[in-house]
Give the backbone structure.
Amino acid sequence: MEISTEKTRIGFIGLGIMGHSMAGHLLDAGFSLHLYNRTKSKADDLVERGAVWEDRISDLAARSDIIITIVGDPKDVEKIYLGPSGILENAGQGSMAVEMTTSDPNLAQTLFDKGLEKGIQVLDAPVSGGDLGARNATLSIMVGGEKKTFEEALPVLEIMGKNIVYQGKAGAGQHTKMANQISIAAAMVALCEAMAYVSRAGLDPETVLTCISKGAAGSWSMDNLGPRIIKGDFAPGFSIKHFIKDMGIALESGKTFDLDMPGLDLALSMYRKMAEKGLGEDGTQGLYKLYESKE
Amino acid sequence: MEISTEKTRIGFIGLGIMGHSMAGHLLDAGFSLHLYNRTKSKADDLVERGAVWEDRISDLAARSDIIITIVGDPKDVEKIYLGPSGILENAGQGSMAVEMTTSDPNLAQTLFDKGLEKGIQVLDAPVSGGDLGARNATLSIMVGGEKKTFEEALPVLEIMGKNIVYQGKAGAGQHTKMANQISIAAAMVALCEAMAYVSRAGLDPETVLTCISKGAAGSWSMDNLGPRIIKGDFAPGFSIKHFIKDMGIALESGKTFDLDMPGLDLALSMYRKMAEKGLGEDGTQGLYKLYESKE
């Protein structure tokens, strides 16, 4: 497939915080954009700017050359892709689907296989970089599927992200995203308990971070979330409830290759405790609160 | 105390990999340097370069204006500072001791108090940056004690390090170092299990790191130890046995303020398992091996 803003019609499903910004960039780039979302009102401003609303996923699929999806969780992905009214049953032969939800690597493989049967190329292409990355089109995008399909999709992906890396066969994008989330999980525990230690020891946390963030303890989390913890700012860059979802997928995926991940286990159990306390809408740095309250 | 290379005599105890480099820098800077070490031969080259060997800690203490110590663990620190032949009983009134071992914050407080009784100013000033930092005089130094003493000692500390930060009263330097090690502990678990996941999922680890190290999962450990894990290089930048010592101190210190640190607990128990397997001389990135071997 050759991409051009004149000829290529893009279908976009999922207008959450991330998807809405991403769809906006595609519209700005001049593509003909067909939209579907569970809550129709979230498409209103995009439709005003020229996008076409579709009442049915099946219609959207039939009228698009590339279908981009970014929805809530693997169950949502199954719902929009599979079944008689789903994407794979209704998209035209030779079309392409780019599934950008953070989702199950095995499901990504299933969609790829089923797509192949129908003549539809499917990529798994989850992102990192959060709402800011989506807004500024600086998302990292980790892509699995056929390399040729990746290369064809690249001009479209480059409108939404910056660090776009082909990771291998179907599922490899999702696996990479899982590795990303696993890297963050126990590291957030480490950061939050170090900050709690600093507080209990009566140190000045800013002065401590000035010193330790430049060495072997340094991390993106320390640089970006450490200062928020100090200010008591627990607003979500990335919310606990979404992180719990991702960690659950990673844990299940690890089980399929018989891999124990005790750090991930620990982080997930601690974050679940937070969600039980009604703190699931906090940002991931909110884990700090668990160390403040003695049960 | 006013520091000058002409008048100030420095005593240095502890010529391990770190201490040997640090003492060398002080000698190069032109100070009169008195040395003591458990193994005398490690002082040989420094003595050839002009340092003075002392057979007894008591003599070294009596003949030095500033006594710098960097030894193995808190027990060693107690041994050289306390008792009739120790530093505090034998150093002159108005002298200064800079204790740079990673050690117990409460012991640091004890040394400070006992020093005060004898008219000896004691700083706790542990370092981070490893043997490379010591060799290149780029150590981070985290300092606790009297601010005035810190300011007096600064010209000497600047010969050994770069990022030198006053953290507060006696013990604050050690507490800061503990916060540093706590930040690293569970984060190493996170990194190693993410790398294990990548391997089991059949991804190319270099390609994965290219993508995820630039975002929210990024850290000093990922940048510096991730590539070593990929190469199978488990040589120590910082050894597991030393890390176990530090984590043990941090855990005990946390207990004194009733702080549970489950991430630290987990990391410590995993690293102890490695030491039991005879892998204590490996670098901390060796934790990766635990994920390779199923028990």
User: Anything to note?
Assistant: Residues 172-200 of chain A form the longest helix (29 residues). Chain A has a mean pLDDT of 97. The longest strand of chain A covers residues 161-168.
